[in-house]
Design a protein that fits this description.
Elements (H helix, E strand, L loop, with lengths): L5 E6 L17 E6 L3 H24 L14 H5 L1 H30 L6 H37 L2
Antiparallel strand pairs: 1-2
Amino acid sequence: MLAGPVLPVRLNSGTPAFDGHDCPPAHQCERQVIVTAPMTLLLMLFLVSGAILIGISLPLIQGRVRPNRWYGFRVGRTLEDPKVWYLVNSYSGWRLLASGVAEIVVATALYFVPDLDVDVYASIVGVVAVAGVMIGLVQSFRYLHQVTKEREAATR
């Protein structure tokens, strides 16, 4: 089970302490209360979004997505030629897979860094996720250009 930061809570005398015993009179007991923090919610969000990227990537990698206007690396050159479609979509699927895995790994690793500010956590993981997708997009366009040039050279 995922837990957020643990915050100490002071209990007045007569209140059950963490171990189930009453606090002695004139003393205060401490117990730790697990609080669902924004960081835990962000972790769940990043895990789900990384898993979605992975889930979207697998059919593309496996070549199970036919040319269409809704899903895949959809540009004119891929829609015109099914061979280009499958090559480029498989390539871009691998990039999506890498982005999803990177997001999950970074989100999970940073979650366990002590005293990491929530804003810093969200910013770092967000940058990793967006940068991964953007780098994959640029690489996919470069690969599309390479495949197109090779196919044109082969038809001459």
